[in-house]
Write a structure and sequence with these properties.
Elements lengths: L7 H41 L7 H18 L1 H22 L1 H4 L4 H11 L2
């Protein structure tokens, strides 16, 4: 029996094209299934998400409430007085070695403190 080998490369190319097309169809179905699952998980997370937990407004309200308590109790004034005394002591230490610290006045120390104050 004689087999014509001229058509063999054409047949193999045709089969490879069909197999690639089938594989691409299968991958597309898998990708759609994964995307649907991701979307359902995202919707589930959104449904269970409590926006008050991460709300910046609630943290601002809390800070205002705490600072209000300071003002009511007079602790804010005490805290400011202690802070000024500490700054004076820091300035005295820094004034002893001006070349090392490069600070010329109390205003410089206060200005540096404001940079690190929260």
């Amino acid at each position: 029996m004689y087999f014509n080998f001229k058509w063999f490369p054409v047949l193999m190319a045709f089969l490879s094209i069909i197999l690639v097309w089938l594989w691409m169809q299968w991958r597309r179905k898998c990708d759609v299934a994964v995307l649907d699952e991701d979307q359902s998980l995202t919707e589930e997370i959104k449904a269970s998400f409590n926006p008050d937990v991460l709300s910046t407004n609630s943290s601002v309200d809390y800070e205002q409430e705490v600072s209000g308590r300071y003002k009511e109790d007079g602790e804010k004034e005490i805290e400011m007085r202690i802070q000024q005394e500490q700054l004076k002591e820091i300035f005295k230490l820094m004034e002893k070695d001006k070349e090392k610290y490069g600070v010329g006045s109390m205003e410089d120390v206060e200005e540096q403190m404001k940079r690190y104050k929260t």
